[in-house]
Amino acid sequence: MKNTITLAILFLFFTCTTFAQEIKFKKGFVLWDGEKVMEYRIENFGNEFYLYELGKTDEEEIVLIMARDNNTKEFKDDDYNKIYFSKQKQSLEISQSYMFKAQIEKMIRKKVISKFGTVDEANMQAYIDKFDEDLPQLLRP
C-alpha cells in the first residue's frame, strides 16, 4: 500500500514538472525552455521595459512597462507600474512595483502573451479587469 501511494505521488510530481515551462531573460532575449521566442529592451535608466516579437525590435512593441516613482526616490508608497499593450491600445496600473520580468512571466502564465509574442485579447481584458487598480489622479504625473 505504501509503495502504491509513493508511486502515485512520484508520478504526479513528474507529470506536473514535465509540463511546466521555464522562462528566462538573457541578454535581450526571452528564452522559453531554452528557445529564443521574444526580445526585450530596458531603457530610460531601467524605468522602461519593452517586449518585442523575435526579430522585430524595429516595429511596435508587444508590451511596454513603465516604472513611475513620481520623482520621490526615497518615498516608495506612491510608486506604481503602468503596463501598456501597444497594439491593443489598452493599459493598466499596478501600485506594487514588481520587477518587469516577473510581470511578463505572470502574463505568460495567465496566457495573456503566447510563446510567440501574440496577445490574446480576451485573456488581456480579463487580466486588466483583475489587476488594474485605477490609481487616483494624485499618483499620476
> What is the terminal-to-terminal distance?
64 Å
Put simply, the count of helices is 3
Largest sheet: 7 strands, antiparallel
User: What proportion of the residues is helical, as a percent range?
Assistant: 25-40%
The fraction of residues assigned to DSSP E strands is 25-35%
Class by helix and strand content? Answer: alpha+beta
Principal-axis shape equals: globular
Overall number of structural domains: 1
The spatial strand order of the largest sheet comes to: 1-2-3-4-5-6-7
Count of extended strands: 7
Rounded to an integer, what's the Rg over CA atoms? 18 Å
SSE order: HEEEEEEEHH
Q: Pick out the low-confidence regions.
A: 15-19
What is the mean pLDDT?
81
Compact description:
It contains three helices and seven strands, in the order αβββββββαα. With 141 residues, the chain is an alpha+beta fold. About 4% of the residues have low confidence.
